[in-house]
């Protein structure tokens, strides 16, 4: 049995509290390893966490990491805010900034998923029949369409805005429908929506089914956008700063292994087979061939967060009236843990070079 404990979180904080008293994951010897509680969304963008766990990088740092799967990163905010989660993997959303404005101490500490050129894992899909009929010929034709997205106030809504601007289309000119990414596939197949901004692997599944055509990668619309980040709770930073530093060292070792597997916009590097094997073990996607064909996310091997992207998305949220209270994007970021880890590990050098 793999060294992993994943507890599916219910919709109430009380259920989470019940989980919080659980014993360390199987394989950890009580009293020898320090427990760290990590929230995940069970996606390939959690690869740094999974690799660090499977390859015992956390254990090397004296840590017993347990994972809790959330169906939405937004649901991590409350347990992070009260210290019932130490670490989370989420989106730099309006909800996060609003929580900080209310005095909830949560910090963005590292990259978890971004879109450097060639790694646009968030894709604009348009129904195949609309492309074949000529109804869709370019971005300007999104006007009047029903378009699926993941949720209001997420980083992906800012991506949508950038796409629409390229076509000279206003947000008000499209009808937005908010669904989970796996539901986008069925909505396209059933013609319930005309287009969708969908992350991998759902995007590839929709294309493979014949329901949709990939017309634009997120890296083309919004290069280097910061779509997912590692979050630390304020209590973790304040009360267990040494543990937080050790966690970051282990995490970046996992991220660097992940980067060694990237090649030409695919998981095709020298160690790709190992990385894909670990991802199929830890995520809900059990077919390794899916990972070989999807466009993987980027993730900075030195943990660096794209500050310019965070500020751009923050300003978009403000323009949309989604930011409540007095807060700046800079208040959400603490680069010190990643910077310290890089000093200790050295800058990233791709394996084999």
Short description:
The chain has 353 residues and is α/β, with parallel strands linked by helices.
What features would you highlight for this structure?
disordered N terminus; D-Maltodextrin-Binding Protein, domain 2; 353 residues; alpha/beta; 5-stranded mixed sheet
Describe this structure in words.
With 353 residues, this protein is α/β, with parallel strands linked by helices. It has two domains: 6-116 and 225-345, Periplasmic binding protein-like II (D-Maltodextrin-Binding Protein, domain 2, 3-Layer(aba) Sandwich); 122-221, D-Maltodextrin-Binding Protein, domain 2, CATH 3.40.190.10. 39% of the residues lie in helices and 19% in strands. It contains 16 helices and 13 strands. The chain has helices at 13-20, 47-54, 57-60, 77-81, 94-101, 128-133, 155-166, 181-189, 202-208, 218-221, 234-239, 241-260, 272-282, 288-293, 307-319, 336-345; strands at residues 6-8, 34-40, 63-69, 87-90, 106-114, 122-127, 146-149, 175-178, 195-199, 212-217, 226-233, 262-263, 266-267. Helix 7 (155-166) links the parallel strand 7 (146-149) and strand 8 (175-178). The two termini are 35 Å apart.
Largest sheet: 6 strands, mixed
Order of neighbouring strands in the sheet with most strands: 1-3-2-4-11-5
Calculate the terminal CA-CA distance, rounded to whole Å.
Answer: 35 Å
Helix count from the secondary structure assignment: 16
Strand content: 15-25%
Helix content: 25-40%
Rg (C-alpha, Å): 20 Å
């Amino acid at each position: 049995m793999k060294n992993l404990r994943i507890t599916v979180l219910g919709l109430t904080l009380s259920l989470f509290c019940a989980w919080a008293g659980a014993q360390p994951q199987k394989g950890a010897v009580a009293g020898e390893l320090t427990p760290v509680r990590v929230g995940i969304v069970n996606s390939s963008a959690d690869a740094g966490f999974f690799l660090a766990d499977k390859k015992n990088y956390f254990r090397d740092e004296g840590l017993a990491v347990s994972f809790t799967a959330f169906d939405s990163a937004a649901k991590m905010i409350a347990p992070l805010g009260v210290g019932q989660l130490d670490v989370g993997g989420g989106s730099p959303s309006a909800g996060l900034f609003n929580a900080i404005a209310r005095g909830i101490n949560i910090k963005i500490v590292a990259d978890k998923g971004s879109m450097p050129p060639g790694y646009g894992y968030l894709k604009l899909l348009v129904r195949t029949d609309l492309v074949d009929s000529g109804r869709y010929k370019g971005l300007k034709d999104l006007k009047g369409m029903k378009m699926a997205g993941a949720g209001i106030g997420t980083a992906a809504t800012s991506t949508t805005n950038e796409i629409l601007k390229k076509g000279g289309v206003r947000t008000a000119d499209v009808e937005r429908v908010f669904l989970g990414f796996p539901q986008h596939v069925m909505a396209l197949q059933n013609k319930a929506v005309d287009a969708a901004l969908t992350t991998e692997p759902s995007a590839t599944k929709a294309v493979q089914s014949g329901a949709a055509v990939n017309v634009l990668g997120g890296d083309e619309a919004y290069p280097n956008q910061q779509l997912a980040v590692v979050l630390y709770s304020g209590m973790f930073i304040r009360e267990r700063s040494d543990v937080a530093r050790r966690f970051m060292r282990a995490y970046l070792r996992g991220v660097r292994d992940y980067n060694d597997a990237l090649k030409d916009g695919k998981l095709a590097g020298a160690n790709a087979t190992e990385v894909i094997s670990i991802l199929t073990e830890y995520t809900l996607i059990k077919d390794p061939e899916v990972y070989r064909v999807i466009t993987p996310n980027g993730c900075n091997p030195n943990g660096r967060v794209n500050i310019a992207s965070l500020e751009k998305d923050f300003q978009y949220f403000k323009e949309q009236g989604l930011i409540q209270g007095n807060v700046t994007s800079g208040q959400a970021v603490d680069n010190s843990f990643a910077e310290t880890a890089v000093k200790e590990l050295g800058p990233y050098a791709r394996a084999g070079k």
